[in-house]
Amino acid sequence: MQSNVPPSASSDKPARAPMQSVNQALDTLLTAAVPVSGSQSVATLEACGRVLAAPVQAHINVPGMDNSQMDGYAVRAADCASGQARLRVSQRIPAGHVGQPLEAGTAARIFTGAMLPEGADAVVMQEACEVDGEHVTVRHVPSRGEWVRYIGEDIRQGSTILPAGTRLRPQELGLAASIGQATLEVLRRVRVAVFFTGDELTMPGEALKPGAIYNSNRFLLRGLLQQLGCEISDYGIVPDNLAATRQTLREAAREHDLIITSGGVSVGEEDHVKPAVQAEGRIDMWQIAMKPGKPLAFGQVRRGQDAGQGEAFFIGLPGNPVSSFVTFLLFVRPFLLRLQGLPREAVLPQAVSMRADFDWPRADRRQEFLRVRRNARGGLDLFPSQGSAVLTSTAWADGLVDNPPGQTIAAGDMVQFLAFDQLLN
After folding, report:
1. Residues 74-99: pLDDT tens digits?
2. Which end of the chain has fewer CB within 10 Å, C or N?
3. Strand pairing of 399-403 and 414-419?
C-alpha cells in the first residue's frame, strides 16, 4: 500500500528504540552484575543477612556423642524383652554429665541430651515406666536405638555444612554455632549511594510550599536497602539541574558499587538524570514495557578520568512512589543480591498460582504488576486504585499479580502471585 503522506511531511526525528520486556531488562541487569570483591571476618552473632565468602566445614561431629532424645531410662534392650522388666536404677545422668557403664539388669535415669552410658542401647520414655523406690518397671519392649541420637547423626566431621554464597538467615547462624563457629568469613557489604531529584521535594518536618510534596521515596528506598544489608550513603535531594546532578554522580561513583536515583529518568525538559549519566558514563537501557515503572535506567558511571579506576553501576528509578517501589523489588533487589554474591538462580522471585477474586477488564499492552492482598477465602483481592502515585496500595497489599501484556482477568481466573514475603527479604 502506498503512503499518501508526501516526503516533505515525514518526521526528521530518529525512531525511538523499542521498549525492553521485563525479562529482557532483568537479564541485562543480572548479566552485568558481578559479586563484590573483598571479605571480612565477623562474629557469627552479627552475621545475619550477610553472604558467606568461604564455605563452612565441620571440624566436629554433631551430636558429638550418642545421647538421649528425651527424659526416660537408658537400658539394654535385651533386658526389657518381657514388656514388664523390673530393673534397678543404678545411676542418674543429667545433660552435660558422663555416666558409668551400664550393668546388665539395671537402668539409668537419663535426661534429654545426656550422653548414653556405655552398654545401653535404647531409651524408654518415662511415660512407659513405673518407678518403685530404687527400681523401675519398664512396661514396653524397646528396640535397639529407640530414642537415641547417634554421634554425627546431624553433621559429620569434615563435611561442608554451608557453601560459599549462602545468605545467612537465623537458621544458618544456628547451624554454624552448632559446630562451634564463633566467626564467619563474609563478603563485604555492597556500598550504595542514593540521591533524589526534583525541586518540588520537601523533607517531613519542613514547611510544605505551594506545589511541593514530601519526599516519601527517600524513606521507602532507604528502608528497602537497609533490609538488604547494604552500606548506604544518602546524598539527599539534589537541585534539579544538569550541573548539580553530574557533580553528585561523580562524588557518588568514587566509593560505591551502585548509585540509585529516584526521578529525572523520563523524557521531560527537567529530567536531568539521564543526560547526566550519559555525560559521566553511559546508559544501557531506560524504557521497560511494564506498568507501573516504564522509565527505568541502567548504566555505569566512571569513577574518574582514568579508565583503570573502573565504574560504579547506576540504576535510575522512576519518581512516582509505586513505580519506584515495584521496580526496586523486581530489578534492584535481584541485582543487589547478585552483587552480594548469591547465585543467579537464587535471586529470582518465584510466583505461585492463585485465584483472582476480582475483575480486571482493561488489558494493557505492557506487563502489569497489580497490587493485591490474599483473603480468607484463599483468593486475591485487588486494591481499588492502581495508580502509580497511590502509595497506600503498597501498604495495604501483600504482593503483586504479574499480569502478561494484553491479558484481562475475570474473577475465578488463576493468576501469578508474587508475595512481598519473598520480595522484601
Report:
1. 999 999 999 999 999 999 999 999 99
2. N
3. antiparallel
